[in-house]
C-alpha cells in the first residue's frame, strides 16, 4: 500500500470548548459575569503534506490511506453527519484546543487517522475530528451528490450585483473579491445569485462557478481596540458562540433558528436592550458612527441603495457575525463583504 505522511502546521488557538464533540452551540456568557479575555476565537493554518524523512523522527505523523473516495474537489472525501456542529480540535484529544467547527453535511479532506480521530482539512481549517461522525468512501460520494450546491466565487474587487441582467440596471450592492455567492441560476453571460435576503445578477466574467460542499467554519480571533467596554467584549463572546446554528425566517431562537434581526434582537435582549424584529427599524436605534470607527458590538446594516434589509453584529478585526441565509445559518463574515449602508452603536459604556 502506498503511504504518505502529514505534518500539520497549526497556529495556537483559543476558544470556548463545548462539553461534547458534537453539539448545538448554546449561551456561554452573560452580562453579569463578564469575561475579560480577548481570546474569543482562533486562527487556523493549513496542513502541509511532507515526507517524514525530511524532518527526522521528532516529527509526529499520521499514516494516510490512499484508497479514499475522490470527487467534488477532494481526493479522500469525508462528510460530517452530526446533530449541530462537530468540533475540530488541534490534536486528537477532547482536551485539545478548539480549532474550528465542521457543520452538518460539510465536506472535508481526510489526511489520516489517529485512533478514533481523523486528521482533516476543510476550507481554511485543519485539525482533528471524531471519526464516528464522518461518512467516507462510496457512501460519502452518494451523499455528496444530494448535498452539493453551486457557488459563484468572486474574482474581482467590488463586483456589482445588479437588479437585472444589464449593466444599465441598478446596483443592489457590491461584493468583495473571494466571497462565495449562492447560485440561483446560470444564464447567458450572467449568474443569478442570492446574497443574504436579496437576489441579483452578476456578470459571469467576474465569477468562477463551481459545485461543491460547505466547508468548516474558521474561528478567527477578534482583537479589541482601546476603550472597548467589558460588556461589548462579553456580547461578542456571547454572539459568536452561536455560529453554525440555523437561520429561520421570522425566528428569534439562538439555538433553534433566527433571521438576521431576530438574532440581533435576541442577543441584545440579554443585555437589557429591547429592539424591534426588523433590520430597517433597528437602524433607528442607537447612535450613527462611521464604519471606520466601528467597535465590537456595533451594528452593521446592509441592503439595496438606501433600503435596509440585513443587519449584523460587528465583532472586531474587520468581521461581523450574522444570521445570513438558510444555507449558511449564523456565520462570521468580512464586515465589508458588501457595502454597509450605515453603522450604529447601542452600547456606549
Gyration radius over CA: 21 Å
CATH class identity of the largest domain: Alpha Beta
* Integer count of domains: 3
CATH superfamily of the largest domain: endopeptidase domain like (from Nostoc punctiforme)
- The termini sit apart by 63 Å
Give the count of helical stretches: 4
How much strand? 35-45%
Shape: globular
Mean of residue pLDDT values: 79
Q: Tags for this entry?
A:
single chain, about 350 residues, mainly beta, SH3 type barrels, endopeptidase fold (from Nostoc punctiforme), 3 domains, six-stranded antiparallel β-sheet, five-stranded antiparallel β-sheet, 4 helices, about 10% helix, globular
Question: Please, could you describe this protein's structure?
Answer:
This protein is mainly beta and 349 residues long. The chain folds into three domains: 4-12 and 37-147, SH3 Domains (SH3 type barrels, Roll), CATH 2.30.30.40; 149-212, SH3 type barrels; 222-345, endopeptidase fold (from Nostoc punctiforme). It is built from four helices and 27 strands. The chain has helices at 137-147, 230-240, 260-269, 279-282; strands at 4-8, 22-23, 47-49, 63-64, 77-80, 85-89, 98-103, 107-114, 117-122, 125-130, 134-136, 149-154, 159-162, 171-175, 180-186, 190-195, 198-203, 207-212, 217-218, 252-253, 257-258, 287-289, 299-304, 307-316, 319-325, 329-334, 342-345. The strands form seven sheets. A six-stranded antiparallel beta sheet has the order 22-27-23-24-25-26. The longest helix is centred in the middle third of the chain and has 11 residues, at 137-147. The chain is globular.
Amino acid at each position: 500500500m502506498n503511504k504518505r505522511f502529514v505534518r500539520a502546521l497549526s497556529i495556537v488557538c483559543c476558544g470556548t470548548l463545548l462539553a461534547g464533540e458534537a453539539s448545538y452551540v448554546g449561551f456561554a456568557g452573560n452580562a453579569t459575569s463578564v469575561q475579560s479575555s480577548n481570546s474569543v476565537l482562533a486562527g487556523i493554518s493549513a496542513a502541509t503534506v511532507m515526507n517524514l524523512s525530511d524532518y527526522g523522527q521528532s516529527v509526529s505523523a499520521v499514516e494516510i490511506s490512499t484508497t479514499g473516495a475522490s470527487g467534488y474537489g477532494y481526493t479522500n472525501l469525508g462528510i460530517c453527519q452530526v446533530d449541530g456542529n462537530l468540533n475540530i480540535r488541534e490534536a486528537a484529544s477532547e482536551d485539545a484546543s478548539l480549532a474550528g467547527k465542521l457543520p452538518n453535511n460539510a465536506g472535508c479532506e481526510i489526511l489520516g487517522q489517529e485512533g478514533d480521530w481523523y486528521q482533516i482539512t476543510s476550507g481554511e481549517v485543519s485539525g482533528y475530528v471524531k471519526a464516528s461522525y464522518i461518512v467516507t468512501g462510496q457512501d460519502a460520494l452518494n451523499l455528496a451528490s444530494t448535498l452539493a450546491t453551486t457557488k459563484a466565487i468572486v474574482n474581482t474587487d467590488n463586483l456589482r450585483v445588479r437588479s437585472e441582467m444589464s449593466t444599465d440596471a441598478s446596483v443592489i450592492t457590491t461584493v468583495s473579491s473571494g466571497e462565495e455567492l449562492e447560485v440561483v441560476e446560470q444564464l447567458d453571460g450572467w449568474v443569478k445569485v442570492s446574497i443574504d435576503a436579496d437576489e441579483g445578477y452578476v456578470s459571469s466574467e467576474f465569477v468562477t462557478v463551481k459545485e461543491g460542499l460547505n466547508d468548516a467554519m474558521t474561528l478567527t480571533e477578534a482583537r479589541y481596540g482601546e476603550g472597548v467596554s467589558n460588556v461589548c467584549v462579553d456580547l461578542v463572546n456571547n454572539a459568536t458562540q452561536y455560529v453554525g446554528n440555523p437561520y429561520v425566517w421570522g425566528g428569534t431562537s439562538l439555538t433553534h433558528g433566527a433571521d438576521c434581526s431576530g438574532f440581533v434582537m435576541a442577543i441584545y435582549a440579554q443585555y437589557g436592550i429591547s429592539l424591534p424584529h426588523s433590520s430597517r427599524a433597528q437602524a433607528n436605534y442607537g447612535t450613527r458612527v462611521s464604519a471606520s470607527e466601528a467597535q465590537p458590538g456595533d451594528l452593521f446594516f446592509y441592503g439595496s441603495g438606501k433600503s435596509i434589509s440585513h443587519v449584523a453584529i460587528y465583532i472586531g478585526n474587520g468581521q461581523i457575525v450574522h444570521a445570513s441565509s438558510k444555507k449558511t445559518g449564523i456565520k462570521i463574515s468580512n464586515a465589508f463583504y458588501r457595502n454597509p449602508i450605515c453603522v450604529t452603536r447601542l452600547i456606549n459604556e
